[in-house]
Amino acid sequence: MATAISLAFSLFLTPVFLKGFRRIGWGQVIRTPEDIANPNHEAKRGTPTMGGVIFILGTIVGYFAGTFFGGTTPALSAMLVLWLMVGFGIVGFIDDYMKVRSQRSLGLSGWRKIVGQLAVLIPFGVVALNFPNSLDQYPASGFVSLFRDISWLNLFAFGAVLGWALYLIWISVIGVATSNSVNLTDGLDGLAAGAGVFVVGSYGLIAFWQFKQSCVGEGWNTVGCYEVREPLNLATVAAAFAGGLIGFLWWNAPKAKVFMGDVGSMAIGGVVTAMAILTRTELLLFVIAGIFVISSGSVILQRLYFKLTRGRRLFLMSPFHHHLEMRGWAEVTIVVRLWIIAGLLAASAVGLFYVDWFAQASNG
Fold first, then answer.
1. Three-state DSSP class for residue 155
2. How far apart are CA 311 and CA 270, in angstroms?
3. What is the pLDDT of residues 50-76, one digit of tens each?
4. Where found, per UniProt (predicted)?
5. DSSP state of 43
């Protein structure tokens, strides 16, 4: 229900939003280095942007409607996902608005973006490690996790003060790195939205499996069970977000009639960050969101190689999808191929997650 409502919201209401975007002048600014180097990007000038607002609203409507019709109530864990989605989206919106208003590609500086992200992440982290439920479960954990908490990677092993510092630094690194990686991936029509469907959809599957194999509640099972708090609500909010992205993708796929803008890419990063932390699969994020890692990794490699070789380039242009453009690949070809890679990586991560459960269940 959450997926269907969110999808319908984005699919059918996007044209209504686009009329409003055009009326107030929310058009894409084309002045970045990659746009100048790619003449085909000039044709995108003026395309409505900040479309991320649409699937953010669709997710909120879909989640609350889904919980209502499903006979459940909104839970703290899902509220934390929505908090990061909206908070990161606001940071991106401010960046987009500054670009559109000045008609320049310069919005918030890198450090100001990070400060804004930290202003959202710190309250998220504090709340997530407080306010236990009646079963003494917290939304987040003080351990680093892979498929579940890793017992020997306790961030609070050296005391509460240092533990809180390490914990907040850890979730901040995850959040800033993930959101900016999604932002770098959002360079071609539909690329970030399509990849986001695979990533967030996979997190929805993981959360639902955790619900069915929960250590407490309706799905009680002691063998290989999960201590995740409110996994069904996490699955619901992930399903709502994935549905919103699918509906938006109808209008964002090549040739895009609307761009998500930083408000959209940052929101995707916020949801992926929250799902990784709250499902206790933080290190698995590198695989399940591997397509975003490829984008940010290619930028890092390009800069390192440039400095080490004193001016030589590893790629014709970074991120990697722009390198493929410069090699003459058609935009739609690049997008579809990278969607396939995103799907394979996300499916592999879900498979590894299941293998871990199967191994523990077999040993038990």
1. coil
2. 35
3. 899 999 999 999 999 999 988 889 999
4. Cell membrane; Membrane
5. G
pTM: 0.93
Crossing angle for the helix pair 231-252 and 2-24, to the nearest 10 degrees: 40
Q: What is the DSSP string of 61-93?
A: HHHHHHHHHTT----HHHHHHHHHHHHHHHHHH
Q: Report residue 6 as tokens.
A: 């969110």
End-to-end C-alpha distance for the chain, whole angstroms: 36
Q: 88-118: per-residue pLDDT in tens?
A: 999 999 998 888 887 666 778 889 999 999 9
Distance of alpha carbon 148 from alpha carbon 210, whole angstroms: 10
CA distance 240 to 10: 11
**Which residue is listed with tokens 């003080």?**
142
Using DSSP's 3-state secondary structure scheme, residue 27 falls into: strand
- CB-CB contact of 163 with 105 (8 Å): no
CA-based max dimension of the chain: 62
Q: What's 39's DSSP letter?
A: G
CB 361 within 8 A of CB 224: yes
What is the distance between the alpha carbons of residues 84 and 82, in angstroms, rounded to a whole number? 6
Helices (H), the chain: 2-24, 33-37, 52-69, 76-102, 110-128, 160-185, 191-212, 231-252, 261-278, 285-288, 290-308, 320-326, 331-363
Contacts of 277 (CB under 8 A, 6+ apart): 128, 140, 171, 174
Cα–Cα distance measured from residue 259 to residue 32, given in angstroms and rounded to the nearest whole number: 15
Read off the tokens for 356: 């871990």
Are 314 and 302 in contact by the 8 Å Cβ rule? The answer is yes
Distances (CA, A) of 313 to 32, 247, 301, 324: 19, 38, 9, 14
**Which is it for the CA torsion 253, 255, 258, 259, positive or negative?**
positive
